[in-house]
């Protein structure tokens, strides 16, 4: 067993995010907002983490379909590679288009469009739910007869190429615009401008949009990014599940079978946008829109996100060497940290309970590494000390994060 070199994707993407950020600061372009960038990275961290546990499952799904149900026996040749590339991109186009046109698919894709920024961090806004649905669409390829090894290679391309189309720093690219998806094309796709809605679905090739009538060229008018009804929250959980809850709420309110079918398989525009407002009042405590993160919060979030990224890189690179118990503990720590970061961005003071949970996870992790009686006794003692001084520690934590410093 060797290291998983796909884990190197983490520093690879971070390098280009940092390069784009440096370029924007140097040229005075305001393409990055702190809360948006952190929220984008949080979603990407979660997706990359869950990939550790699911990527192999997708491969075996493709292999099972290929071995048992393949219509043809396709072998690697130069022309079959070209055919697979075209079919992979075509399947992506229709997955992507249906993800905008059908509620149940939009529920897993909406997270990718929530950011009101448009930069490389937005490319990270992919969820495990989207990866599952996307793989179900791609399952048609092994059914046709393409070997899973060939398919997996092109899926890596479809994970790499679109990253570089999520930027405002690259203008139009001449003749390339006629064949490939470019940043200009994808800016249109992420736009909430009415004239750009539901356009430019292509992933690598733009020819499908031109063929099926969904292509629009980027104009000179300023582009607004994000949802037509902005989400307005950076909560990690709310970003992932708000539209699923909206569907559930509308389904319960629907009175006929036809209405319920439309809730699940209708268009996102058919759902009452007021449903989200009702759910927010029911499930969220509202923060004043003008409330910004202070210096202490930003410093704490940056440190926490950096630690989370280092742990993610270690898991991705060394997953084959880590026992299941350590993978579970590290993954739990990362997920709690992502929820924690979103709560701080939202100014939620209940975040201290998550800090306590993270401490317990750290102690449990140490216990897994050194399962000796003396060590376990010391860890149990360390776990009881914060419980005895819970209110005092909570007071100082709140004082540090919420009561000092102004917006920088």
Automatic annotation (TrEMBL):
Q: Answer yes or no on keyword Iron-sulfur.
A: no
Record domain Fatty acid hydroxylase: where: 81-214
Task: Give GO terms for biological process.
Answer: lipid biosynthetic process; membrane lipid metabolic process
Please provide the record's keywords in A-Z order. Answer: Lipid metabolism, Membrane, Oxidoreductase, Transmembrane, Transmembrane helix
One Gene Ontology cellular component: endomembrane system
- In Swiss-Prot or TrEMBL terms, this protein is called Sterol desaturase
Organism listed in the record: Filimonas zeae
Q: What residue ranges are annotated as transmembrane?
A: 6-24, 45-66, 78-95, 135-157, 236-252, 300-321, 327-345, 352-370
Supply the InterPro entries for this chain: Fatty_acid_hydroxylase, Sterol_desaturase/TMEM195
Keyword Plastid listed? The answer is no
Query: Main subcellular localization, coarse class?
Result: membrane
Which compartment or compartments is the protein found in?
Endomembrane system
The protein's superkingdom reads Bacteria
Q: How does it sit in the membrane?
A: Multi-pass membrane protein
Q: Which GO terms describe its molecular function?
A: glyceryl-ether monooxygenase activity; iron ion binding
Which sequence ranges form a coiled-coil region, renumbered to this chain?
none
Which Pfam family would be a valid example here?
Answer: FA_hydroxylase
């Amino acid at each position: 067993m060797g290291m998983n070199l796909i884990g190197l994707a983490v520093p690879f993407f971070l390098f280009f995010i940092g390069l784009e950020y440096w370029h924007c600061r140097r040229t005075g372009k305001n393409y990055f907002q702190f809360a948006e960038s952190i929220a984008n990275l949080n979603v990407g961290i979660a997706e990359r983490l869950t990939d550790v546990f699911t990527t192999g499952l997708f491969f075996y799904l493709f292999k099972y379909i290929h071995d048992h149900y393949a219509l043809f026996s396709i072998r690697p040749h130069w022309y079959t590679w070209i055919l697979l590339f075209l079919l992979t991109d075509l399947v992506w186009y229709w997955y992507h288009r249906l993800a905008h046109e059908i509620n149940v698919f939009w529920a897993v894709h909406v997270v990718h469009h929530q950011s009101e920024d448009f930069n490389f961090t937005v490319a990270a806004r992919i969820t495990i739910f989207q990866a599952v649905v996307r793989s179900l669409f791609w399952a048609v390829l092994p059914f046709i007869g393409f070997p899973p090894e060939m398919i997996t290679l092109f899926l890596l391309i479809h994970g790499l190429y679109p990253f570089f189309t999520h930027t405002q720093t690259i203008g139009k690219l001449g003749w390339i615009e006629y064949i490939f998806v470019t940043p200009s094309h994808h800016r249109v796709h992420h736009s909430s401008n009415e004239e750009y809605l539901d356009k430019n679905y292509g992933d690598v090739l733009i020819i499908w949009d031109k063929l099926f009538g969904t292509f629009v060229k980027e104009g000179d008018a300023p582009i607004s990014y994000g949802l037509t009804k902005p989400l307005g929250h950076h909560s990690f959980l709310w970003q992932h599940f708000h539209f699923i809850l909206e569907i559930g709420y509308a389904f319960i309110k629907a009175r006929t079978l036809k209405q319920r079918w439309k809730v699940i398989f209708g268009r996102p525009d058919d759902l009452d946008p007021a449903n989200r407002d009702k759910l927010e009042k029911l499930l969220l405590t509202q923060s004043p829109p003008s409330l910004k993160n202070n210096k202490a919060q930003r410093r704490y979030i940056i440190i926490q996100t950096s630690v989370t990224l280092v742990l993610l890189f270690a898991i991705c690179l060394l997953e084959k060497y880590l026992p299941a118990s350590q993978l579970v503990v590290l993954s739990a720590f990362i997920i709690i940290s992502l929820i924690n970061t979103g709560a701080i961005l939202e100014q939620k003071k209940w975040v201290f309970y998550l800090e306590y949970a993270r401490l317990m996870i750290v102690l449990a992790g140490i216990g897994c590494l050194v399962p000796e009686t003396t060590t376990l006794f010391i860890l149990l003692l360390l776990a009881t000390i914060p419980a005895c001084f819970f209110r005092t520690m909570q007071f100082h934590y709140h004082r540090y994060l919420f009561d000092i410093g102004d917006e920088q």
